[in-house]
Amino acid sequence: MKIAVIGAGPAGATVARILHDKGYTVTLYEAQKSFAVKPCGWAFPVLDRDEKREPIFDLVKEAVLWEYTGYKMYLDNQLVYHSSNRLLGYILDKPKFIEALAGDTPTRMGVKATYRGNGIVVTGSGDSERFDRVIIAGGFPMQPRNLEKILALQYWVRTSRVEEPDFPELYFYSDMIGYAWIFPENEKTLRVGIGGYASRDKLLALLHELMKSKKYIADGEKTKFEGAYVTVSGIDWDLASSTDPYYVGESMGAVMPATGEGIRLGMWTAIALARSIVNGTSYVDELKKIRVIRFMRPHRLMVEKLLKMSPETRKQFLMKTPEESLLRISLGRATVSDFLKIASRPEILKAIISDLL
Ligand SMILES: Cc1cc2nc3c(=O)[nH]c(=O)nc-3n(C[C@H](O)[C@H](O)[C@H](O)COP(=O)(O)OP(=O)(O)OC[C@H]3O[C@@H](n4cnc5c(N)ncnc54)[C@H](O)[C@@H]3O)c2cc1C
After folding, report:
1. Is residue 70 in a domain?
2. End of a domain among 231, 255, 281?
3. pLDDT digits (tens, 9 = 90+) for 329-357
4. What is the pLDDT of residue 357?
5. In terms of CB atoms within 10 Å, which end of the chain has fewer, N or C?
6. Residues 141 and 153 in one domain
7. pTM of the predicted structure, to 2 decimals
8. Separation of 6 CA from ligand 1 center, angstroms?
């Protein structure tokens, strides 16, 4: 069976690789001349038990640039949580990671591809080829409908000494849904960015204020500035039901709505699609079997609730949520019962009720 995969991000490279290894004739198209050009923080949470069972996630360990053993969380610039002594996640060398994912799958780099229907894929130079299956993996620009997105902006900074390189820092604001991040990638370089439900000007103002407040960042050299959208709708189940073409990754909304985490989610959709093609099962059923995909719905509901809260209630929510729950939310692993536990805490319940009165 001949399969075209359009887009070599984490989702496309994963599905192409698994199917290639299973003996399918796969062509992976990537519009850029190199992997991982799209803006990204390159952060990846520590592997959980499901990921440890999937061989493709072994490649994560080979691409680790930096490990995080704690994190710091701020609300309106006040430190509210500081956890340590626990492996929480990694910064990956994303170009190396995607190259490893693609492996020896035949890949056409620097070739923009368009799906014309009836299995026909046309490239920018006008070549066309017919495939039995076509998989769209081009990220948010290839969504066939307008899924809800927020803007994210990011600087790459080189500095003489990162203050606490083992700890990523997350900055929340009571008047904005979203967060800013400082993701060190070693002792001298880091990415500092922000994403949220706000205008570009407001996001930039908050980001610049944060950068100014950290002397080592303010004095550092800004080597790159970039921006892109992050999908926050959750999976679009109509797109998940499509078989001509199939969709994986962010092109179908597979990004954790509360955190913007898309690398791992994209890989899981790719694994689900590969299982469906190899076993002749339904893609939607395969997606629903995956735990992290099931966690997306409560995370999305939490965002919807936060959007409706007053800044004061949001502040209470963030201040009173137990650290373990906040950690599970930031790792994309909070369940419905976690959210029920948070909502039933007296201080949060009181704040929610006062919003309703
Ligand atoms: C600023 C920012 C920071 C982020 N930080 C993180 C983070 O730290 N951790 C995390 O997990 N997620 C993060 N995300 C989200 C994450 O980057 C994406 O959700 C994830 O990369 C999506 O993977 P994907 O494979 O679906 O698509 P993409 O990574 O977008 O890959 C799609 C690929 O398809 C190619 N392509 C597009 N159209 C065509 C075409 N017509 N023909 C051929 N190729 C095409 C593109 O060039 C691209 O390489 C961040 C996003 C932003 C914007």
Report:
1. no
2. 231
3. 888 888 888 878 777 777 777 766 766 66
4. 64
5. C
6. no
7. 0.96
8. 12
Residue 352: predicted pLDDT: 67
Read off the pLDDT of residues 36-56 as tens digits, 9 standing for 90 and up: 999 999 999 999 999 999 999
- 142 C-beta closer than 6 A to ligand 1: yes
What is the domain extent for residue 263? 2-42+93-145+236-294
Q: Does the C-beta of 169 come closer than 6 Å to ligand 1?
A: no
**Which of these, 167, 226, 216, 153, lies nearest to 188 by C-alpha position?**
216
For ligand 1, the distance from its centroid to the CA atom of residue 11, given in whole angstroms, is 9
CATH of the domain at 212: 3.30.9.10
pLDDT value of position 227 = 97
Question: CA–CA separation, 135 vs 248, rounded Å?
Answer: 7
The first and second tokens of residue 166, run together, are: 């083992």
Long-range contacts of 305-314, Cβ-Cβ distance < 8 Å, separation of 24 or more: 306/177, 307/177, 307/197, 308/355, 309/351, 309/352, 309/355, 310/355, 311/174, 311/175, 312/174, 312/351, 313/351, 313/352, 313/354, 313/355, 314/174, 314/177
The verdict on 132 and 209 lying in the same domain is no
DSSP 8-state code for residue 214: S
Give distance in angstroms: CA of 356 to centre of ligand 1.
Answer: 39
Answer yes or no: is the C-beta of 110 below 6 A from any ligand 1 atom: no
Answer whether residue 86 is part of any domain.
no
Cα 94 to ligand 1 centre (Å): 10
- Which atom of ligand 1 is nearest the CA belonging to 226? 1
| pLDDT tens digits along 78-120 | 998 888 788 999 999 999 999 999 999 999 999 999 999 999 9
Q: Is residue 184 part of a domain?
A: yes
Q: How confident is the model at residue 4 (pLDDT cuts 50, 70, 90)?
A: very high
Residues 297 and 302: their CA atoms lie apart, in Å, by 9
Asked if residue 154 and residue 97 are part of one domain, the reply reads: no
**CA separation for the pair 291, 285 (Å, rounded):** 12
CB of residue 112 inside a 6 A radius of ligand 1 = yes
The phi and psi torsions of 323 (rounded to 5 degrees) equal -55, -40
Return the amino acid letter for 248: V
Query: What is the mean predicted confidence (pLDDT) over 188-203?
Result: 97
Tell whether 174 and 140 lie within a shared domain. Answer: no
In order, the DSSP letters of 202-213 are: HHHHHHHHHHHH
